[in-house]
Design brief:
164 residues, alpha/beta, Rossmann fold, four-stranded parallel sheet, 8 helices, 17% strand
Length: 164
């Protein structure tokens, strides 16, 4: 797992909405982020349930897209990929249950092709998630993106390390 100041910054951001630590982490990672993303890219955050977003007022993956965009000048859109249905929080599940939980949780918006065409993307399309644990959420989100018939890359800011 991520430890120390990185863990504190991520947890303060995720649980308390304090983004100063995330801004610090992104500034530290700025050279890598600028190398990875280009101004020609489109970032699409992994959607969270609207009920949870309304309750917390936060959309972590969208906030991360916004922060990366500020560093790289790439575009981002939080309405192309949608979450559907009610599912158990991934953090409450383990391994195989996580894979099954979000199997049909993501879909593209009805006007996705118009939106993607309007961006006139010359770079990559990225699906962005904040923390990767098993990869189930990011995997299912990317799978839903296959309908756009363009290559899609995936990015997660942090990754939970598992003991071998």
């Amino acid at each position: 797992m991520y430890h120390g100041a990185v863990r504190q910054a991520l947890l303060a951001w995720k649980l308390q909405g304090q983004s100063s630590g995330m801004h610090w982490l992104l500034q530290a990672a700025k050279p890598h982020i600028q190398h990875l993303f280009s101004a020609d890219d489109l970032l699409i955050p992994v959607p969270m349930p609207m009920s949870r977003m309304r309750r917390s007022g936060l959309h972590h993956s969208a906030n991360l897209c916004q922060m990366i965009s500020a560093i790289t000048a790439c575009q981002w859109d939080w309405q192309i990929l949608r979450r559907k249905g009610n599912h158990t929080r991934q953090s409450a599940l383990k391994g195989k249950a996580r894979q099954h939980n979000l199997r049909k949780a993501f879909t593209l918006s009805n006007d996705y092709s118009t939106k993607i065409e309007a961006y006139n993307i010359k770079g990559k399309i990225w699906v962005i998630d904040d923390i990767l644990t098993t990869g189930a959420t990011l995997g299912h989100a990317c799978q839903a993106m296959r309908r756009i018939h363009q290559p899609v890359s995936a990015f997660s800011f942090a990754r939970t390390l598992h003991d071998a």
